[in-house]
Amino acid sequence: MSLPGQKTTTSSIDWDDFKSLIFKLERDKNYKYCLLIATGVFTGLRISDLLQLRWCQFDDTNYLNVVEKKTKKPRKIKINPDLLDLIERIQVKMEITDTSQYIFLNRYGTKPIDRSWVNVNLKKIFKKYKIEVEGNVSTHMFRKTLGNRILKLNNYSNESIVLLNSIFQHSSIQLTKVYLGIKEREIMGVYDSLHL
């Protein structure tokens, strides 16, 4: 959490770094953060919604249905097959039998882990695995990684910005552009376009 009036920036994770991190976390049996990061990136959910997910929401379905805590709007998300495979594989490795429990349980097994605790641990994870990012390491990286991946795969088209606006449920296209750092890139590009 930032202080009132303090501006913080969080960027996205490079896609290859993201894939490598997920592999390493699973290999090192850090299943909770492996799933948290992968689910966050593949769904684009805010951390408040991620932490409320239960195993049963991924049982026998290709879609995840949530009501977003911040917007109070329902959202239907197509579950990426790679994410579904990862969830099923880790569920077996963790020997989860009660699928009604939260996926991201605290150490006492009573409720989901805390958002601030997640951010503290993300910083440790990124340091341990030597992943460099611009700006702060926080849960906002998940959504921004999804956004930047979609933009890149679609050649930064206006259509992809409109889609991301809908996915993120932002109030305007401008907000989505600012969120993903597009507005700043566009402004800086103006200076590069000037020639003698």
TrEMBL record:
UniProt domain Tyr recombinase: residue ranges: 8-192
GO molecular function: DNA binding
Taxonomic superkingdom: Bacteria
Pfam families reported in the protein's UniProt record: Phage_integrase
Assigned keywords, A-Z: DNA recombination
Signal peptide from the UniProt entry: none
Gene Ontology biological-process entries: DNA integration; DNA recombination
Protein name per its UniProtKB record: Integrase
Organism (species): Mariniphaga sediminis
